[in-house]
Amino acid sequence: MSRKTIVVVIFVLFCLSSIQHHYHLDAAEALTETNGTVLLQPSKATILNIPATSHTILLLRNISSSSAYLICQIHTQFQNLTLSLTPYHNQSQYVTGHGGMGVVTVLQPDQMEVTWHLFSNQIDSVRALVYVTPLTADDPLPGGCNVEYDLEYDPELHLRSSMPLTSTVLFQWASVGFSRSYLPPNCEYSVPQVTLEYKVYVRYNSGNDFSEDAYFDAVQSMITAGDLNDHGFYLQTVDFSLDSKSQITTASYDNQGAIYNVMVTQTKKTTGSKTAAAYIPRIFYTCDLQSTGNDKCGKTDVAAVILATFGGIIGVFLCFLGHRFFKIENFLFGFLAFGLIFYQVMAISTSESEIGNLSVAAVFGIIGGCLYLLCWWYLGFPLLSVLMNGLVAGYLISSIIFYTPFGNLPYWDTQFNYGMTFTCGVLIVPVIILCFTRVLNILSCTFVGSYGVILAIDVYINGGLKFIIVNSLRHAVHQYYLKIVITGPFTTNEIILVVVWFTLFICGTVFQLVRERKRAPFPPSPRQSHQRDAFPRLRRYQSSGEREPLLNTSNSRQYGTVYQIHNTADDYEDNEEVNRISDTEKPGPV
């Protein structure tokens, strides 16, 4: 048998085995739908295709003897399902909803099998992710001290949007672990609760990605305590007290899906060892996935795209040519400064729409840019002109600082503390390098300009770097924003944009420093240039050449003759100008 024949036979057998394997998968799915029973495995995510108006039995067998309780959770993107502990909808035994929902089953001694019931009233089939979390007696029980909702144990997260531009995550306090043969601990006894610590985590989806596959991937990356440490971004720790609420309020953004989860950690006093368990993750959208109106997901903001385009063009100019065209640069920085100020004034004092506030801010920005340029035109004082540029760069630096976890420190809960600290951040750049005016001006141009370029790209790809400025504006406009936990997406796209931002900043700085190294630090102001050019003839009369004789013998008058002066019209005009200038320069009376 030749080699070609062997290769063909192997290829045919491989294809047949693949077809047979695919057929068995389809048959298994058909059998599952027919019998209505799905066999689950612990700690393994399973995506099911739930038929329309169906009753599906979820079965878990061969449970480990070390497991004390189980959390069965169901995740759908927006379709409602019902998960019940019994075949019937008994009160306090089932939960209905979408997103992330689940129930807790406390195991009895020697129990090796558990059954849950999943009901669907949808007219179409629904894809759902099912996950069973086994917990031991040493692990805390999420939601074990439920006092608000119907279930005895509620491991779910409940999301609300009580205030604009925010999302509130609520959860029930956990209970300490207990074995199968013991009763659950009394939640009213606060001493065991002190050993529990609650940490809230978040993970952002890619901007404008509202697909079901992206949703399932996000859920699977935030489903266990280990996943939270690996993929989640830590927000804040919620401390237990008898009068505190188990909730946290965070910032929310348009066209951005955020998935939250809480990890509870139990510390044993005797050994100091720690065990952790995760609640059921829940995703939050600021838009309606099923809507086709103004609140639909993925809607493009035309005004933001137009502003970002102009911002990118201006950013390229400032990054590489800002100091060279000093007057244009002054106008642009004046426009930015006054535009930011009057946008905040309009947003605080009026109820205009976003477009109206931006339009008024643009008008006052143009006026402010012209006034700032006029100051340079008339005074020609470089220190004053560079100061505004440094303040704008300092505003951006302060916004970056408060966009980090530093901005979530409890010290900034009051307006005075936040305002004074933010102002100190604005003054960082001018105070440090104000004496090096040219360097300060170039650094301000390249830093702000490079951010303008990155901001344009960020808007196009729905990234998260634009929220650096957005959060600062929200802090200035909304007083309740001081209590908000500030966070934002920082995925691979944002990391790449930060690297590009840093590269543009370095390249622009080096380019402008090299380009301007042999030039004067600053060009003269137009008024100074006009005054300097107004006295050329005076300087000609006041300065004599080296070869000009000390005594003029051409028109020397001889003794006994009459000296006649023959002035031409030009000479007369020159003499009149000299006399006029000389009179103006005479000192006044002392």
UniProtKB/TrEMBL annotation:
Pfam families: Ig_TM7SF3_N (PF25992), TM7S3_TM198 (PF13886). PANTHER family: TRANSMEMBRANE 7 SUPERFAMILY MEMBER 3. It is found in: Membrane. It is a multi-pass membrane protein. The keyword Membrane applies. Residues 577-590 have a biased composition (Basic and acidic residues). Keywords: Membrane, Signal, Transmembrane, Transmembrane helix. Residues 1-21 form the signal peptide. This is TM7S3/TM198-like domain-containing protein. GO terms for cellular component: membrane. InterPro entries: TM7S3/TM198-like_dom (IPR025256), TM7SF3 (IPR042502). Residues 312-513 form the TM7S3/TM198-like domain. The chain crosses the membrane at residues 302-321, 328-346, 358-379, 386-406, 418-436, 443-461, 495-514. The lineage of its organism: Eukaryota, Metazoa, Spiralia, Lophotrochozoa, Mollusca. Residues 565-590 are annotated as: Disordered.
